[in-house]
Design a protein that fits this description.
Layout lengths: L1 E6 L3 H11 L5 E7 L2 H11 L3 E4 L8 H11 L5 E5 L4 H10 L3 E4 L4 H12 L7 H11 L3
Parallel strand pairs: 1-2, 1-3, 3-4, 4-5
Length: 140
């Protein structure tokens, strides 16, 4: 069973994604947090296999929360799930220690598959994010 913590300031997003994940036999949502500060505390208390982390949140954003989790628990596997593909979000999130990066436009099944792959040690990136990273590496 893959244990998941979901950190997002939008309650409806948490409710929807959590409801879908509960239909997956190999995934268990062990907690939900509404901001980065709560997310850090819950991550360090619960030690889930995967943390789904939004970026833009009140009190503490997902990038800072990711940094703090990784500083205390370097083995944590964090999937950023956000609406942003901007350079000022993608690269800082990865530098902070995020393992994977998805957009909120992803299908629920894609999020579930990303959870499974990330739990196995793989990194998963939304195609739009990969294209942006490749363009930057090529100097475009």
């Amino acid at each position: 069973m893959i244990r998941v913590l979901f950190v997002d300031d939008h309650e409806m997003v948490r409710i929807g994604v959590t409801a879908f994940l509960k239909t997956q036999k190999d995934i268990e949502v062990v907690g939900e947090a509404a901001n980065g500060e709560e997310g850090v505390k819950m991550a360090l208390d619960l030690r889930p296999d995967i943390i789904l982390m939004d970026i833009v949140m009140d009190q503490m954003d997902g990038i800072e929360a990711t940094k703090r989790i990784i500083e205390s628990w370097p083995e944590a596997k964090i999937i950023m799930v956000t609406s942003f593909v901007d350079d000022d979000k993608v690269y800082p999130a990865l530098e902070a220690g995020a393992t994977s990066y998805l957009l909120k436009t992803s299908k629920a099944s894609e999020i579930a598959n990303a959870i499974r792959k990330t739990a196995k040690g793989e990194s998963v990136f939304e195609q739009e994010v990969t294209n942006k990273m490749m363009a930057k590496m090529r100097g475009n």
